[in-house]
């Protein structure tokens, strides 16, 4: 059996076209242009690419964006001052600080400084709590994108065994909350899990978000499973690859996301969705 490929690029293009249309309408009827502010600290090349892509996606969808870049040795107070300024600016609807931050920063303190009503990453404790209570304001973009992909591929969720590999605040934990809210039976595995394959083989839906190249192989998955690959890694020869060994898994899975062109394009799409939702909420 060869799996159905869940194409994140096609879905992202469709969702972004819809968001661009809604942004145009908001501007025409209310004079509001959705605006995202992105703060980048330091010279990490991967972070610089992510930020560039976020700003470009805003432009393409007709959103405004503000990009603020600091050197890696910037004083945290300077960044906190900028966040306060953006919090107070009524024309800014979303604020995102690209992670990771250099070591002189207390990342949690920076995330808590963002106005929860503009926290389009959904990382502020208030928004994490709201998600956990089943009443989310901003859903973290990557797991939000994964849910949209599962919906578009019509993957049955109620009662399904969902196994997540990875327990990060950015992906693993919010992913667990979202799947639980859809009545999946959720297992979260991590680096200390004893028999990873025992868990992954039981999964109807497997989400890999660990950051280890091709660690999920075809012999670790259940025939017909839906396999979602959140990983972005580079092989020794510089090629992009996921946490899932696509070649062996596509022969076993029922549906699978590729890397690149899977979850990645959906992450930025949901950032735009959160920014638009924030702009629309200012009318309420
Ligand atoms: N670094 C890696 N992923 C993310 C993300 O989704 N948001 C932010 N702010 N930083 C990240």
Highlighted features:
284 residues, alpha/beta, Rossmann fold, 2 domains, 6-stranded parallel beta sheet, 3-stranded parallel beta sheet, 10 helices, 41% helix, globular, binds guanine
Can you offer a commentary on this structure?
This protein is 41% helix and 15% strand. The chain is of the alpha/beta class. The protein has two domains: 31-116, Leucine Dehydrogenase, chain A, domain 1 (Rossmann fold, 3-Layer(aba) Sandwich); 141-263, NAD(P)-binding Rossmann-like Domain (Rossmann fold), CATH 3.40.50.720. The longest helix has 23 residues, at 8-30. It starts with a strand and ends with a helix. The mean pLDDT is 97. The site of guanine has 8 residues, from strand 4 and helix 6.
Radius of gyration: 19 Å
Small molecules in complex:
guanine
Q: Rough shape?
A: globular
Number of strands: 11
Largest sheet: 6 strands, parallel
Instruction: Summarize the amount of helix as a percent range.
Output: 40-55%
CATH superfamily of the largest domain: NAD(P)-binding Rossmann-like Domain
Structural class: alpha/beta
Quick rundown:
By secondary structure, this protein is α/β, with parallel strands linked by helices. It is built from ten helices and eleven strands.
SSE inventory with pairings:
Elements (H helix, E strand, L loop, with lengths): L3 E2 L2 H23 L4 E7 L3 H16 L3 E7 L5 H13 L5 E4 L9 H7 L11 H8 L8 H12 L8 E5 L6 H10 L3 E5 L6 H5 L4 E4 L17 E4 L3 E2 L5 E2 L4 H4 L5 E2 L6 H19 L3
Parallel strand pairs: 1-11, 2-3, 2-4, 5-6, 5-7, 7-8, 8-11
Antiparallel strand pairs: 9-10
Helix pairs in contact: 1-10, 2-10, 6-7, 6-10
Bound molecules: guanine.
